[in-house]
Amino acid sequence: MKEIYKIKRRQLLKLSSITLGSSVLAACTNQTSTPLTTEKKGKLDKIKFALGWKAEAEYGGFYQAVATGIYQNYDLDVVIQPTGPQSNPTQLLLGGVVDLSMGQAVDAIRAVQQGIPKITVASIFQKGIRILLAHPGVGNDSLAQLKGKPIFVAPGAITTYWPLLKAKYGFTDDQKRPYNFNVSPFLVEKNSAQQGILTSEPYIIEKQGGFKPNILPLADAGYNPYTFTIETTKKLVETNPDLVQRFVDASIKGWYSYLENPEPANELIKKDNPEMSDDLIAYGLDKLQEYGIIISGDAEKLGIGAMTDERWESLFNELVTVGVLDAKTDYKQAYTLAFVNKGVNFYTES
Questions:
Q1: pLDDT at site 156
Q2: Is residue 22 part of a domain?
Q3: Does any domain span residue 24?
């Protein structure tokens, strides 16, 4: 039950939309972990950086930059701030509690629609980790084969990927079943599918169900927004672009270091999140590498963190077509390419 609870809380945050109704104070006072900071003090610029959830492999590069002194080399004293179920990184960012935070492209465009002054400066993940899972050996081996089958989805799916699945594969709303972040209903109904995160639900299903589920990435359906992005306020980009640049560069180098030797960061991850076992961290990192989540596509030449105008435009047009986003939105205000795309050699040799 402990594992199920963790997945529930993690997914609730990752699938939530931008909400500014609750107070920033409430978001701050519900933190569950103590931030980690560099040991070296002195004339370092202090940065507070909010994660999208608790410490885990998906944030390994940031912890690696702390553990190996990369941030210090860029004259930064970085405090990594995990978040919890009552926290919203956008609230923390706009309230001035943190300087930068994790985000995702769809929410960034919605922020433009809502007049929220934040901006995406890098994307750590080139591929989305949102997936559907199906039982093996029952003929549900592709997204197309799930047409007409029961699918357990959370409410957030309705305003993100579900409209795309309906348009591309002919899915219908009567297929939907409520997903309460408990894998048990899926385990019982062998002809069903359920949503999940690549680094989480497959692991839980293997442990509880005793089998490896079919993993069907939603990126294969064309739903592949930039995720695990780095966001900050437009004000910081305008007033202190050098600080933003140093954080982005150091973080990207931390990711290259983590993929090469994850042990330094993993020790900090376990310290900051005692629920993370060596096995679960290794599983998460393995899936990130196996599926090319971090280094693939544009990142192969432009470096980790890469973004392009073409990817943003494609995402926007797809979601406008299925009614998820307003066609009048100036989506280009959601991001800037000024801090990324320097090439792999810049991050690995300089």
A1: 87
A2: no
A3: no
**What range defines the domain where residue 181 resides?**
128-219
* pLDDT tens string 263-317: 999 999 999 999 999 999 999 999 999 999 999 999 999 999 999 999 999 999 9
Give the separation between CA 335 and CA 118, rounded to whole angstroms.
Answer: 9
248 shares a domain with 135:
no
Helix (H) or strand (E) holding 80: strand 76-81
Same domain (yes/no): 215, 233: no
Token code pair at residue 55: 């410490």
Indicate the residue among 192, 219, 246 that finishes a domain.
219
- If asked whether residues 115 and 250 sit together in one domain, one would say yes
SS percent in the chain: helix, strand, coil, step 5 = 45, 15, 40
**C-alpha distance from residue 239 to each of 229, 235, 236, 242 (Å):** 21, 6, 5, 9
* 215-264: pLDDT as tens digits: 999 988 888 999 999 999 999 999 999 999 999 999 999 999 999 999 99
Asked whether the beta carbons of 183 and 3 are under 8 A apart, the reply is no
Instruction: Supply the pLDDT for residue 345.
Output: 96
Distances (CA, A) of 37 to 77, 243, 260: 7, 17, 22
Q: What is the DSSP letter of 85?
A: T
Q: What is the pTM of this model?
A: 0.86
Is the Cβ–Cβ distance between 226 and 104 less than 8 Å?
Answer: yes
